[in-house]
Amino acid sequence: MQTAHHSALTAKHAVLDRQIATEAQRPLPDAVTLAALKKQKLKIKQELAQI
């Protein structure tokens, strides 16, 4: 059973995934931005694993 919190985290994870893909495909991706997005995505992934 998925809770609202789990659904919200899953949605945020998907948004971050798209943002990472978009940034990575730019001609000159910003390494700092990519690192920050990946860190946020990892934090959400860890929180999802704890639920």
Automatic annotation (TrEMBL):
It holds the Pfam family DUF465. Gene3D superfamilies: 6.10.280.50. This is DUF465 domain-containing protein. It comes from Sphingomonas glacialis.
